[in-house]
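pasting for the record
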Amino acid sequence: MYRRTLLGGLSVTFGGLAGCQAPLVSGPPRIDLELYNYTPDPQPVQIRVLRTDRDEYDDARVFSREFEVPSRSDEASAGTLKENDIVERRPYLLRVRPKFGDGQWYHHHYYPGESATDEDSVSLDIRLRQEESTGDVYPRFSI
Protein backbone atom coordinates (compact mmCIF):
# COMPACT_ATOMS: atom_id res chain seq x y z
CA MET A 1 0.00 0.00 0.00
CA TYR A 2 2.77 2.43 0.95
CA ARG A 3 4.66 1.70 -2.28
CA ARG A 4 1.56 2.30 -4.42
CA THR A 5 0.91 5.66 -2.69
CA LEU A 6 4.53 6.70 -3.17
CA LEU A 7 4.51 5.75 -6.87
CA GLY A 8 1.20 7.53 -7.40
CA GLY A 9 2.56 10.70 -5.79
CA LEU A 10 5.77 10.58 -7.83
CA SER A 11 3.91 10.07 -11.11
CA VAL A 12 1.76 13.16 -10.40
CA THR A 13 4.86 15.18 -9.48
CA PHE A 14 6.84 14.19 -12.57
CA GLY A 15 3.80 14.57 -14.80
CA GLY A 16 3.35 18.12 -13.54
CA LEU A 17 6.99 18.94 -14.22
CA ALA A 18 7.07 17.42 -17.71
CA GLY A 19 5.65 20.47 -19.46
CA CYS A 20 7.07 23.02 -17.03
CA GLN A 21 10.65 23.77 -18.00
CA ALA A 22 10.52 27.56 -18.51
CA PRO A 23 11.30 28.49 -14.87
CA LEU A 24 14.39 26.27 -14.99
CA VAL A 25 15.80 27.96 -18.12
CA SER A 26 17.25 31.42 -17.67
CA GLY A 27 17.92 33.91 -20.43
CA PRO A 28 20.77 36.37 -20.68
CA PRO A 29 21.23 38.72 -17.71
CA ARG A 30 19.13 41.89 -17.91
CA ILE A 31 19.70 45.45 -16.78
CA ASP A 32 17.53 47.47 -14.40
CA LEU A 33 17.00 51.22 -14.70
CA GLU A 34 17.10 53.29 -11.51
CA LEU A 35 16.28 57.01 -11.58
CA TYR A 36 17.01 59.30 -8.63
CA ASN A 37 15.70 62.86 -8.36
CA TYR A 38 17.60 65.18 -6.02
CA THR A 39 15.51 68.25 -6.90
CA PRO A 40 12.56 69.64 -4.92
CA ASP A 41 10.12 69.09 -7.85
CA PRO A 42 8.99 66.00 -9.79
CA GLN A 43 11.12 65.76 -12.93
CA PRO A 44 10.00 64.57 -16.35
CA VAL A 45 12.76 62.78 -18.24
CA GLN A 46 13.14 60.89 -21.51
CA ILE A 47 15.41 57.84 -21.62
CA ARG A 48 16.63 56.10 -24.76
CA VAL A 49 18.91 53.09 -24.83
CA LEU A 50 20.70 52.38 -28.11
CA ARG A 51 22.78 49.40 -29.17
CA THR A 52 26.29 50.37 -30.22
CA ASP A 53 26.59 47.65 -32.87
CA ARG A 54 23.83 48.99 -35.17
CA ASP A 55 24.13 51.72 -37.81
CA GLU A 56 20.49 52.75 -38.21
CA TYR A 57 18.72 54.54 -35.36
CA ASP A 58 15.57 52.42 -35.62
CA ASP A 59 17.65 49.24 -35.47
CA ALA A 60 19.76 50.52 -32.56
CA ARG A 61 16.93 51.73 -30.28
CA VAL A 62 15.98 49.01 -27.80
CA PHE A 63 14.33 51.14 -25.12
CA SER A 64 12.58 54.51 -25.29
CA ARG A 65 10.32 55.81 -22.52
CA GLU A 66 9.25 58.95 -20.73
CA PHE A 67 9.12 59.03 -16.94
CA GLU A 68 8.19 61.47 -14.22
CA VAL A 69 10.57 60.90 -11.34
CA PRO A 70 9.04 61.88 -7.98
CA SER A 71 10.58 64.71 -5.97
CA ARG A 72 12.72 64.14 -2.90
CA SER A 73 10.93 63.94 0.41
CA ASP A 74 13.63 65.85 2.32
CA GLU A 75 17.07 67.42 1.77
CA ALA A 76 18.96 64.21 2.47
CA SER A 77 17.00 61.86 0.22
CA ALA A 78 16.06 61.44 -3.41
CA GLY A 79 12.83 60.61 -5.18
CA THR A 80 13.27 57.23 -6.86
CA LEU A 81 11.79 55.25 -9.70
CA LYS A 82 12.88 51.77 -10.78
CA GLU A 83 12.15 49.71 -13.87
CA ASN A 84 13.32 46.09 -13.80
CA ASP A 85 14.83 44.12 -16.67
CA ILE A 86 14.61 46.81 -19.35
CA VAL A 87 17.27 45.41 -21.74
CA GLU A 88 19.83 42.62 -22.06
CA ARG A 89 23.23 43.21 -20.48
CA ARG A 90 25.57 44.54 -23.20
CA PRO A 91 27.25 47.87 -24.13
CA TYR A 92 24.82 50.71 -24.91
CA LEU A 93 24.66 54.39 -25.66
CA LEU A 94 22.30 56.09 -23.18
CA ARG A 95 20.48 59.25 -24.15
CA VAL A 96 18.77 61.22 -21.40
CA ARG A 97 16.76 64.43 -21.75
CA PRO A 98 15.36 66.08 -18.64
CA LYS A 99 12.25 68.23 -18.91
CA PHE A 100 10.99 66.70 -22.22
CA GLY A 101 10.62 68.93 -25.26
CA ASP A 102 13.50 70.85 -26.79
CA GLY A 103 15.95 70.37 -23.93
CA GLN A 104 19.48 69.09 -24.26
CA TRP A 105 20.17 65.39 -24.71
CA TYR A 106 22.93 64.04 -22.45
CA HIS A 107 24.89 60.97 -23.60
CA HIS A 108 26.72 58.23 -21.76
CA HIS A 109 28.39 55.05 -22.99
CA TYR A 110 27.49 52.10 -20.77
CA TYR A 111 29.80 49.09 -20.51
CA PRO A 112 28.53 46.35 -18.16
CA GLY A 113 30.78 44.77 -15.56
CA GLU A 114 32.21 41.31 -16.00
CA SER A 115 30.28 39.59 -13.23
CA ALA A 116 26.68 38.61 -13.96
CA THR A 117 26.10 38.25 -10.21
CA ASP A 118 27.39 41.71 -9.27
CA GLU A 119 24.28 43.84 -8.63
CA ASP A 120 26.09 47.07 -9.54
CA SER A 121 27.04 45.71 -12.95
CA VAL A 122 23.41 45.17 -13.98
CA SER A 123 21.85 48.52 -13.16
CA LEU A 124 21.73 51.83 -15.01
CA ASP A 125 21.64 54.53 -12.32
CA ILE A 126 20.76 58.04 -13.44
CA ARG A 127 20.73 60.83 -10.86
CA LEU A 128 18.93 64.06 -11.68
CA ARG A 129 20.52 67.16 -10.15
CA GLN A 130 19.72 70.85 -10.40
CA GLU A 131 22.22 73.61 -11.11
CA GLU A 132 21.74 76.13 -8.29
CA SER A 133 22.58 79.25 -10.29
CA THR A 134 20.40 78.52 -13.35
CA GLY A 135 17.87 75.97 -12.10
CA ASP A 136 18.71 73.68 -15.05
CA VAL A 137 18.25 69.96 -14.42
CA TYR A 138 21.00 67.61 -15.61
CA PRO A 139 21.74 63.90 -15.22
CA ARG A 140 24.71 62.29 -13.53
CA PHE A 141 25.46 58.71 -14.50
CA SER A 142 26.46 56.37 -11.67
CA ILE A 143 27.12 53.29 -13.68
